[in-house]
């Protein structure tokens, strides 16, 4: 804002809107990565359990 001479600081607000949007997108990406890792972990766990069951029977 100190060097923004656009009407009603429009350039500053546009910049801030983009940064907030970036932060929200980043948070969504982290949540999606966490969900994916959980799903992969569950899948691997189920596979190992099935393998171990076959080995004991």
Automatic annotation (TrEMBL):
GO CC field: mitochondrial inner membrane
GO molecular function: lipid binding
Biological process according to GO: ubiquinone biosynthetic process
Main subcellular location: mitochondrion
Superkingdom field: Eukaryota
Keyword check for Glycosyltransferase: no
Domain COQ9 C-terminal: 1-25
Pathway annotation: Cofactor biosynthesis; ubiquinone biosynthesis
UniProt entry keywords in alphabetical sequence: Lipid-binding, Mitochondrion, Transit peptide, Ubiquinone biosynthesis
Annotated Pfam families: COQ9
Cellular localization per UniProt: Mitochondrion
Family indicated by similarity: Belongs to the COQ9 family.
PANTHER family tied to this protein: UBIQUINONE BIOSYNTHESIS PROTEIN COQ9, MITOCHONDRIAL (PTHR21427:SF19)
Protein's job: Membrane-associated protein that warps the membrane surface to access and bind aromatic isoprenes with high specificity, including ubiquinone (CoQ) isoprene intermediates and presents them directly to Coq7, therefore facilitating the Coq7-mediated hydroxylase step. Participates in the biosynthesis of coenzyme Q, also named ubiquinone, an essential lipid-soluble electron transporter for aerobic cellular respiration.
Protein name (database record): Ubiquinone biosynthesis protein
